[in-house]
Structure formats: C-alpha cells, structure tokens
Amino acid sequence: MTEAPVPAGAIDYEVISLLSDLVRIESVNPSLAPSGSGEAAIAGFVADWAHRHGLATEWFGPPQRPSLLVTSFRGEPPDGAVLVLCGHLDTVGLGDQPDPLVPRIDGDRLVGRGAYDMKAGLAAALLACRTAAQLAAADEITGAVIVAAVADEEFASDGVQVVSERLVELGAAGAIVLEPTELAIGVAHKGFVWTRIDIDGVAAHGSRPHLGVDAVMQMGPVLVALGDLDRQLAERGHPLLGPGNLHASLVSGGTEESTIPAHCSLVVERRTLPGETVADVEADVEAVLDACRAADPRLVVTASTTLAREPMETPIDAPVANVLADAVTLASGREPQLAGMSYWADSGFLSAAGIPSVVFGPAGDGAHADHEWVSIASTVTCAEALSATVRAFCR
Ligand SMILES: [Zn+2]
C-alpha cells in the first residue's frame, strides 16, 4: 500500500481535486451518528464554489440541515430542456477507518468517507453545471442544469422532499441521481413500506392462564401468515428487479418471565415493485390479519403504515436514459448496462414528482463500510459522461 494524502491542487483532474475538497468536509448525518456535523458546512462550500464559478444558488430546509439548488442560469430557467443532477451532501458515520476525512490516493482509488457514496458524483455534477453555463453563454445549448445538492438522504431523505416541488416548477425534464452504479444506468428500483402491527392481549399471572391472553403467542400465526405472503410475492417478479419481498424487522413484547404478555408489536418491511402502491401493501397486510382474526376470535390486532417510499421505473427509451447511455458510451468506449438497482434512492421521490429519473455514478466500494473508496478513472468518466449528456440533452 502506498497511500499518501492528496495535496490540494496536485491532481490534474479537476473533478478529483473537487472530490478531495468535499471529502475533507465532515458531513455525517446527525440522525445516524449524533456527533455528525450535518450538511451546513459542505453546503456552504458548494455554494461558495458555485458563486466563484458564476452559478446561482437557492437554499431550502432548516439552516442546520440545508439543501441547495445550484443553477446554470439566473432568474427564470431558459426555454430548452432542464436537466437535474441530484447528489446528497450527507454521509453515514465515519466508521473504523484511519483518517476518514483525509482523502488518499492508492493506485486508481481515492480513499475516504463519502468518496464513493456519493461525493464523487456530486463533484461531477457541479462541473457539469458549470459546463452548462459555459455552453449556454456560447449559445451552444438553450437548456440548463440544476444540481440538487440535498441533505439527509442517508436517513429520511428530507432534502429531496423539500426541493422536488421547486424542481418541477423550474421545468425539470429529466433527472440523474448520482449514487454509485459502477457506470451502469439504473432505470428501476424497488420502493419500501414499513408496517407496524400491534396485538393487544390481557396480562395475567403465569399461574392463572385462564385470566390472560398471550399477545406474544398470538403473533406466531401472524408471522407464519406473513411468511406465506412473502412466498406468494416470490412467484411474481419484475424483469429488472425480480420479486418483491418482505421481512420481519423488529419484534417486541412481554414484561417479565411470570407475566402473560399484554402486548406484542412487530415491524415488517415490504420491498415493493413499480406499480405496487401503499394501498396494495396495506390491503395485503389486512388480508393476513383478517385470516388470523377468523382463526382466533380473541385476537385484537391493528396495523399501520409508518413510512413509505415509492419505487421507480423509467422507460429505457426515455430521453434522459437514452442520452446518458450514448454519453457513457462516448466517455468510456463501452455501452452501459441499463439495470435495476438493488437499493432505494432519492430518485423514488423525483420520479414520483413526475420527473423521469435514472441513477448513475462511478465505481468503487465500501459504501457504509470501513474502507470506502471510489475509482479515480471511473469518476473522471462519470464527469465526462455528464458533460456530454448536458450537450445533447439541454437543447
Ligand atoms: Zn448515497
């Protein structure tokens, strides 16, 4: 290993230099790690960078957890197509890696927290926005780029939710969410729904079972029926994403050894396919509970949705997918794979807001793990592909 700190300005590639600057700024999501600084400092850096390069900014969200739009235009958007490049500002906790905020070069790898997920994509997006401003000034394009630099993707995606309405208002015609994809183009991903199921039994002394109703025991048939539902889901799949699924995430109940438990609660996560709605998930859960109620008249059970995130599916012939695919081919010399992504991303919100969206970013490894790195060559290719996309899309 010949890891050495990256001296500021020592790298030829501007995108790598900008990426290194972004890695140096701690932006750990405080909802995940209470000591995290959040997005204020990194958003301030992005805004300064944008202003230095003649770009405009618009702020959203609370000052300590801000999101911002960086636009290649001032005032009203121009007539041509507006492309959104979306990158989150936050990272997960620093983990157990030495000097996670000191970007280091190791061969083709730039090592540091957030390098891969997803400061490399954010750096590439900012440069593409500047390219758009330059091309517009030279009358080579009539459209524009908006970088949505958003907070809180790693926890509740508050950032993308506060900017999506504004992006629609500004006429966004397509969006690229710059999560790492190893230069594949993600045209679909699952959504998810969290359901909390509560059973109310009756507490009693363990020696007097006739006076109690055991809520934990009653959860057994519910779990078995949910397992059956999961097996049914496995029978119908999506061509890019495979089947939907569910799992029992959290279970709790009971108070002490000799007391029949009066309460049991269960949290279930269902991963949904494009076309499956929250109402569909709720109906499936209700059918499971109805069957359990029919089998056990003493069962008192309720279910509620605690969080839902939309799936995404963008037709592969949508302009944003098409144009990006050509641009990646141009930049990398290889036709990119159009694929389903295994994870959920902010693209779920943008797509639900009516903006055709894809997920695209560089190669690397160690997202959310202890040794995070991004490929330098692939980050450069990502930046080149975004610039080529701007030329062809923003017309
Ligand atoms: Zn990410």
Summarize the structure.
With 395 residues, the chain is of the alpha+beta class.
Write the layout of secondary structure elements.
Elements lengths: L3 E2 L8 H11 L15 H13 L3 E5 L6 E5 L10 E7 L15 E3 L2 E3 L3 H23 L6 E7 L7 H12 L2 E6 L7 E5 L1 E10 L3 E2 L9 H19 L3 E2 L3 E2 L1 E9 L5 E2 L2 E10 L5 H18 L5 E9 L2 E2 L5 H14 L5 E4 L5 H6 L4 E4 L3 E2 L7 E3 H18 L2
Parallel strand pairs: 4-7, 4-8, 8-20, 9-19
Antiparallel strand pairs: 1-5, 2-3, 3-7, 5-6, 6-22, 9-18, 9-20, 10-16, 10-17, 11-15, 12-13, 14-16, 21-22
Bound molecules: zinc ion (ZN).
Oligomer: single chain
Gap between N and C termini? 46 Å
Compute the CA-based radius of gyration.
24 Å
* Helix percentage: 25-40%
Would you identify the CATH architecture of the largest domain? 3-Layer(aba) Sandwich
* Mean pLDDT across all amino acids: 95
Q: Kindly report the CATH topology of the largest domain.
A: Aminopeptidase
β-strand percent reads 25-35%
According to DSSP, the number of beta strands is 22
Parts with pLDDT < 50 across at least 5 consecutive residues: 7-11
Biggest sheet statistics: 9 strands, mixed
- Helix/strand-derived category reads alpha+beta
**Each distinct ligand:** zinc ion
State the CATH superfamily name of the largest domain: Zn peptidases
Q: Provide the domain count.
A: 2
Shape: elongated
Q: Can you tell me the CATH class of the largest domain? A: Alpha Beta
DSSP summary: helix tally: 9
How does this structure look, described?
By secondary structure, this protein is of the alpha+beta class. The protein has two domains: 4-189 and 312-393, Zn peptidases (Aminopeptidase); 191-309, 2-Layer Sandwich (Alpha-Beta Plaits), CATH 3.30.70. It is built from nine helices and 22 strands. The strands form five sheets. Strands 2, 3, 4, 7, 8, 9, 18, 19 and 20 form a nine-stranded mixed sheet that branches. The chain has a five-stranded antiparallel sheet with strand order 1-5-6-22-21. Strand 5 (104-106) and strand 6 (109-111) form a beta hairpin. Helix 5 (215-233) packs across helix 6. It is elongated and about 85 Å long. The two termini are 46 Å apart. Bound molecules: zinc ion (ZN).
